[in-house]
């Protein structure tokens, strides 16, 4: 029996709808396995700006530091997407949280459930057996380098910058993970053009002799983007910078069938944060159709990584597998063969999952 305190940070848009299901799953697991989980909630993003003026209120950050793990939803609002001049933005809250908590490693597993082979736009024979684990660096790169704008506003820059220690720590994590999998590591960069990528590649090359059992491959970001769709099975563990990792993993979501299926774990120096890779999805907010499985699978990563609860995490994944086997689908993973009575909204999918648990 374990006692744990979980902070739920729903954020904006569909964040609230999907984390509600993720939390229900955590609570059901606690009851089933005899653990005691306590919960609290905090604001981030647009809802936090509206309530307090800050995208990441000090109170939220304090609660995050005090928690054993954070279940995170999403941030973002169309108001800011269409107003580039807004000074305080929801996304700043997310980035500040990652920086403040030292969450330098973002693990994004691309797991294709067999039942979803036909819901991807990629041919089943290309997809079958694909299983990739991305390590996206999360607190460096062009995201956090200096930003400038000339006085007449006609010139802008974002500094793409990496320090050796930042590359080393994420690359080591990726090597360690490769050892527990198929022992293949692909490092993705743009070393033919960018100095920061040449540093990245140097660091990977310097560490390679320490992991003689891992086969290392270097790819440029443009080629990697192509290979991901051409032959996803050649990928095992991928390590890359913040920006390239952001883009490649949205692309990779199509291997798993939908953005609504992709979970992630952001870990590093402090409390781990577990978040879908998708955003606030305002096109479907409030309609009750968002796929909650990315949040549910993020909850599974939380159990596994932050709490060391392997059996509990496996029970969650098995429940997801079971509802998909039963034919239940949210709109994003449905196809022409999905019967009307198997097409579920967010909370009905949650109910189906809880029944399996
Ligand atoms: P998005 O991920 O929110 O949506 C992209 C597409 O995927 C949309 O068509 C959406 O309906 C669909 N989708 C996403 N999640 C889904 C789910 N669970 N179920 C079903 N369909 C789903 O990306 P976007 O539209 O580029 O961005 C919207 C806002 O979200 C922006 O303000 C952006 O900054 C923000 N954003 C936040 C995060 C985050 O908080 N981690 C991530 C990405 C984008
Ligand atoms: C993500 C998002 C964020 C990112 C945005 C909203 C700042 O796209 O979590 O993948 O680019 O990291
Ligand atoms: Mn993204």
Automatic annotation (TrEMBL):
Its main location: cytoplasm. Pathway: Amino-acid biosynthesis; L-leucine biosynthesis; L-leucine from 3-methyl-2-oxobutanoate: step 3/4. It holds the Pfam family Iso_dh. Its EC number is 1.1.1.85. Mg(2+) binds at residues 222, 246, 250. It is found in: Cytoplasm. One of its GO terms (molecular function) is 3-isopropylmalate dehydrogenase activity. The record marks 143, 190 as: Important for catalysis. One of its GO terms (cellular component) is cytosol. It is an enzyme of class 1 (oxidoreductase). Its cofactor is Mg(2+); Mn(2+). Binds 1 Mg(2+) or Mn(2+) ion per subunit. Gene3D superfamilies: Isopropylmalate Dehydrogenase (3.40.718.10). Keywords: Amino-acid biosynthesis, Branched-chain amino acid biosynthesis, Cytoplasm, Leucine biosynthesis, Magnesium, Manganese, Metal-binding, NAD, Oxidoreductase. InterPro entries: IsoCit/isopropylmalate_DH_CS, IsoPropMal-DH-like_dom, Isopropylmalate_DH. It catalyses: (2R,3S)-3-isopropylmalate + NAD(+) = 4-methyl-2-oxopentanoate + CO2 + NADH. GO terms for biological process: L-leucine biosynthetic process. Substrate binds at residues 98, 108, 136, 222. Residues 5-353 form the Isopropylmalate dehydrogenase-like domain. Belongs to the isocitrate and isopropylmalate dehydrogenases family. LeuB type 1 subfamily. Catalyzes the oxidation of 3-carboxy-2-hydroxy-4-methylpentanoate (3-isopropylmalate) to 3-carboxy-4-methyl-2-oxopentanoate. The product decarboxylates to 4-methyl-2 oxopentanoate. Homodimer. NCBIfam families: leuB. PANTHER family: 3-ISOPROPYLMALATE DEHYDROGENASE. This is 3-isopropylmalate dehydrogenase. It comes from Fibrella aestuarina BUZ 2.
């Amino acid at each position: 029996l374990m006692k744990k305190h979980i902070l739920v940070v729903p954020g904006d848009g569909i964040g609230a709808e999907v984390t509600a299901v993720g939390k229900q799953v955590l609570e059901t697991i606690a009851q089933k396995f005899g653990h005691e989980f306590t919960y609290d909630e905090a604001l981030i993003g647009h809802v936090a700006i509206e309530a307090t003026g800050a995208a990441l209120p000090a109170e939220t950050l304090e609660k995050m530091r005090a928690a054993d793990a954070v279940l995170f939803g999403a941030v973002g609002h169309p108001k800011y997407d269409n107003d580039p001049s807004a000074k305080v933005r929801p996304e700043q809250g997310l980035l500040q949280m990652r920086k403040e908590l030292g969450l330098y490693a973002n693990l994004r597993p691309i797991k294709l459930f067999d039942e979803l082979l036909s819901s991807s736009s990629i041919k089943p024979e290309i997809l079958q057996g694909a299983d990739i684990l991305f390590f996206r660096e999360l607190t460096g790169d062009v995201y956090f380098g200096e930003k400038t704008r000339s006085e007449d506003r006609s010139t802008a820059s974002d500094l793409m910058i990496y320090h050796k220690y930042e590359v080393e720590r994420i690359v080591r994590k990726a090597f360690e993970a490769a050892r527990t999998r198929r022992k293949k590591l692909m490092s993705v960069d743009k070393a033919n053009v960018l100095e920061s990528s040449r540093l990245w590649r140097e660091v990977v090359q310097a560490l390679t002799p320490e992991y003689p059992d891992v086969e290392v491959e270097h790819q440029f970001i443009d080629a990697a983007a192509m290979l991901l769709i051409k032959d996803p099975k050649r990928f095992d563990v991928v390590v890359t910078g913040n920006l390239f990792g952001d883009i490649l993993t949205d692309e990779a979501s199509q291997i798993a069938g939908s953005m609504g299926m992709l979970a992630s774990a952001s870990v590093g120096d402090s409390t781990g944060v577990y978040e879908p890779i998708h955003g606030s999805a305002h096109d479907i907010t409030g309609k009750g159709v968002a796929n909650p499985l990315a949040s549910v699978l993020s909850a599974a990563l939380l159990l596994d990584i932050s709490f060391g609860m392997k059996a509990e995490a496996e029970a969650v994944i098995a429940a997801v597998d079971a509802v998909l086997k039963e034919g239940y689908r949210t709109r994003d993973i449905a196809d022409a063969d999905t019967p009307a009575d198997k097409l579920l909204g967010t909370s009905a999918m949650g109910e189906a999952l809880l029944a399996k648990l």
